[in-house]
Amino acid sequence: MRVLWLCNIVLPVIARELGMEVSNKEGWISGMADTLLKKREENGIELSVAFPVEEGEIPEGRKIGALTCYGFREDLRRAEIYDETLELSLKKIVDIVQPDIVHCFGTEYPHTLAMCRVFPKKERLLVGVQGLCTLIAEAYYANLPEKVIASVTLRDWLRGDNLRQQQEKFAARGKAEREIISLAGNIAGRTRWDKRHVREWNPGAQYFDINESLRSVFYGPVWEPEKAQAHSVFMSQGDYPLKGLHYMLKAMPSVLEKYPDAKLYVAGNSLVSYTTVKEKLKLSAYGAYLRRLMAEGKLEEKVVFLGKLDAGQMLDRYLRSSLYVCASSAENSPNSLGEAMLLGMPCVCAAVGGIPSLFEGGKDGICYRGFQEPGEEELETISGRLAGGVLQMWDHPENTKTYCAHARSHAARTHDRERNYQSLLEAYTRIGHRGV
Question: Which of 48, 75, 351, 371 makes an SS bond possible with 68, Cβ 3.0 to 4.6 Å?
Answer without folding.
Answer: 48
